[in-house]
Design goal:
five-stranded mixed beta sheet; alpha/beta; Nucleotidyltransferase, domain 5
């Protein structure tokens, strides 16, 4: 019984991918980002092209998974995906263009890094990217599309690893724990020590 329930979840999560293929599209990519809200670090996007039968029953919105589960699924997605692209926009670029535009740039970078050009984009959120490719924005897409959910896991694990490395450079801010988000500990560290080079100077909580 648990196996049938798990399989049913995967079938539901592949609805948007199947609909795109029924319209004649062959290479469907799921796109998601992580890191819009933090006070520090980059915004990171992933673009994931899965096979038609991906066998990834446990993949879902990365925010609903424990860190060990995400890391296990990250490895599984990399072993099963046909192609993965990553995009990253640095904090100073976010300050220059604003976080929404930086998010779109990260997504476009991720698509550009794919070895195979997609012909249909499934995007997390009610968005449309400025690119001449058929696409569909899906609010809460990481809960409704397996490809987007896979991208959310890949982006989250990748960004968390980056923030852990930044912690070794700037240990005063607890980036290994807060991943750049505005926790009380992090806000107190900014008040006490001032911002470091990876803080987003345009964000409330960093600027004074």
């Amino acid at each position: 019984m648990p196996r049938r329930c798990s399989d049913a979840l995967v079938v539901d999560m592949l609805l948007h991918e199947r609909e795109a293929r029924l319209q004649g599209f062959q290479t469907v990519v799921g796109i998601d980002e992580v890191g819009r809200g933090p006070l520090a670090g980059p915004v990171v996007a992933a673009a994931v092209i899965l096979p038609h039968i991906p066998s990834l029953q446990d993949v879902r919105d990365s925010k609903k998974l424990s860190a060990p589960k995400r890391e296990m699924l990250y490895r599984k997605i990399h072993s099963r995906a046909l192609c993965i692209g990553m995009g990253l926009v640095e904090p100073w670029e976010i300050d220059d263009v604003n976080i929404l535009q930086a998010t779109f740039q990260a997504m476009l970078h991720a698509v550009g890094e794919l070895r195979v050009a997609p012909d249909f984009l499934l995007i997390d959120g009610p968005y449309r990217l400025p690119i001449d490719v058929a696409q569909k924005g899906i609010p809460q897409g990481d809960q409704k599309s397996l490809s987007i959910a896979a991208a959310s896991i890949v982006a989250k694990v990748h960004r968390d690893a980056l923030m852990a490395r930044y912690h070794t450079l700037y240990p005063l801010y607890g980036f290994d724990r807060n991943k750049g988000y505005g926790t009380p500990e992090h806000l107190e560290a900014i008040r006490r020590h001032g911002p470091c080079p990876i803080h987003r100077m345009s964000f409330k909580g960093v600027r004074h």
